[in-house]
Amino acid sequence: MTFTRALSAEFLKLFSTRLWWILALVLFLYVGVMAGGLGALFGWAATGGDASAAGVSPLPPGMNLHAVIYSMASSIGYVFPVLLGAFAVTGEFRHQTLTPTFLATPRRGIVLSAKVVAMLLVGALFGVIAWASTVGLGAAALGAFNLDTALDSSDTWAMVGRGVLAMALWAAVGVGLGALVPSQVAALIIVIAFTQFLEPVLRLVSSFNEVTANIARFLPGAASDSLVGASFYSVAMPGGSAETLFWWQGGLVLLAIAVVTTVAGYFTSWRRDVT
Amino acid sequence: MPIGVPIEFAGVTKRFGAVNAVNDLSFTVEPGRVTGFLGPNGAGKTTSLRMLLGLVRPTSGTATFGGVPYRQLPNPLTAVGAALEAASFHPGRTARNHLGVYAAAAGLDKARVDIVLGKVGLSEYADRRVGGYSLGMRQRLGLAGTLLGDPGVLVLDEPINGLDPEGIKWIRLFLRELAAEGRTVLVSSHLLSEVQQSVDDVVIIARGQLVHRGPLSSLDTEATPHVIVNSPTPEALAAALTAAGLSHAPARAGLLVAASDPAQIGHVAFAAGVEISVLHRQETGLEDSFLSLIAGGGER
Prior knowledge:
Chain B: Keywords: ATP-binding, Nucleotide-binding, Transport. The complex is a heterodimer. By secondary structure, chain A is mainly alpha-helical.
């Protein structure tokens, strides 16, 4: 009873400010433009454009171009649900709304778990938005060059489903991060630095060596790509994506990160005195 | 009609590191009365209220509502309404949505939101973002939040801060009305004059310690009475007072004598043949008693 009330309060909190739709809109445009643009670029390169002159390398043999393009929804778009989840927590600290929140629901564990559940659902919504964008614009670009869009393949739709799940898990990871790092600015910097710089560099560097490549499979972004089953990184990396987890392992890694950070955040910042 | 329950502090202590923010605080706040929780800034008022509301964990002691700690109230918003000093609003949320969030968390009827907005006079601004609100409007919104669950107990931290004279008049009537309905009303302030006209009882703390509690009128008798007396020949007057065994001290205009009856001083002067130019009882007033209490607090 208390939980469902707390859950509906969390949804009201989220949908009564502008953050969610601004993030959703930017996500939609960002992954859509990237998927459409890359689709057009590869399409042009693969169908007899002057590839060497344009500096575009030929595609690796056997690569599913459509999967790489569609999966940009999560492989580059995952930062958006993370931010949404993190801000759902850090915003309460920043605007001191923890006070009325805990006055209405003094059992703090209920509030935090309601946030996780709410963010899983809204993260899935973000997933639907992002994948609709990449599949829509990516397929349009591929189709324009008469390349296979694979829209009639059940594998494609299974990937979309796993991609939506990945985005949901990422939003939960965001909640954990926010609970662990309640400062909104610090959380923002960590998300940007880790997702846009640290993890890409680590994945690139580790791929040169078999041992490090084995470890790098467990990096959150890599685990997410394993869950989805395709990634932009398989094109960008010299070693390809030989070292990946099974999709369900990738999902479990993300879930574990979300659970561990949320529980750790509960015992550090969330239970603290609200002054 | 919701029935108020007493608020009980029993040996509540809060230590922040080496600092004793609140020290062994014990008092009871009765229903049907407005109680002023007074003390200078930094005395520990807000920390005490936050402990009462389960937001801050006391180092020791308990604070309860009719014997039940806040965190164990089955649906706290329907039992206790609290507004704390900090502006706890998301600036991008409208007043209606702000209240809607907490009404949902407490499982209250959505209609309550409009009712309480009307009660505090914010109906016409309900769909405006709180970021654009004045301090006075925020105070009213905080107050609206306390009324959401129609609780029997109200805990308000500095509710008068930032209100214009009209707002102050309004809140005084409002608090009186809530107490008259049988609710328990606890209002904190760092200024006695701010709440003097609306409180029945006072609880005064200084440096984290209780220094006085009782009805407002009890403040009057608290200070030692003094008489102010002056003479064209002050030395002769002083000598006469000393001879009569009355302790005295120089004051701004004349002498301050530790006595309650001006007639007694007049007689001493007359008997000694000393002319007097001023003779009256010093009006200490509630504010003076309050100030002397909080200045001497911690040593009692």
